Amino acid sequence: MHVRDLTQYLAELAENNNRAWFVMNKPRYDILRAEFLELVVRLIAQVSKFDPAIAGCNPKKALFRINRDMRFSHDKSPYKSYFSASITASGLKKPSQGGGPAYYFHIDASGTLLIASGEYMPPADRLRAIRQQVVADANGFGKLLKNKKLVETYGDLQTEGQLKRPPKGFDADSPHIEYIKMKNFIVWNEQSVKKMLSDALEKELVSGFKDAYPLVSWLRQIKTPIAE
């Protein structure tokens, strides 16, 4: 896809976030959206070589809408200033829908590429199952945290929203207690795409997702109890 055209469009959209401007520039949006979809199609094909579970992911459903959900937000801007997609084995993007671990990325108006993998804000029953698995598979989780490629590319798991105290049902001396306090089990990094060509972008995404595969694989083995 034409990365420069996308970032230019998003920058203009950020400055003119209204329906009139969006409608007037709809032809540009349609072209860029189609190119972004083609990128996701290629990513699914490439990532499925090391993670066959996502081979059946529907690329159209992997894309997020550009329209913002303004119902509970003070910001009434109607459109997002980024293009984003989430590739999962289930084909479901949202954690609340039981999407499971995902390969996520977005490109925003500032020309920043965010590459992320894992589970962001999973629902309560799923989060509890992950925390329990951290205790049950303390050795395996410890090895995951030391995975060379994962650490080199992402560093540690993100601590956003981490609890100050152990969650209910977990002792302070539980294995990996600082990770049990987390509300997300995700890694991410950011970089500029302003001088990046399409082939380089695709290569960077595939490489980043491959380095995060150990985390995705570990999370995927966890079964969430079915509510009675």
Describe this structure in words.
The structure is a single chain. The chain has 228 residues and is an alpha+beta fold. It has one domain (3-220). It is built from nine helices and four strands.
Question: Could you give a quick summary of the protein structure above?
Answer:
The protein has about 230 residues and is α+β, with helices and mostly antiparallel strands. Helices cover about 45% and strands about 15% of the residues.
For the largest beta sheet, what order do the strands appear in spatially? 1-2-3-4
Largest sheet: 4 strands, antiparallel
Helical content band: 40-55%
- What is the number of E strands? 4
Features of the shown structure:
single chain; 228 residues; alpha+beta; 4-stranded antiparallel beta sheet; 9 helices; 44% helix
Helices and strands in order:
Layout lengths: L2 H13 L3 H6 L1 H22 L11 H4 L19 E7 L13 E7 L3 E8 L4 H13 L1 H8 L2 H7 L22 H4 L4 E8 L5 H23 L8
Antiparallel strand pairs: 1-2, 2-3, 3-4
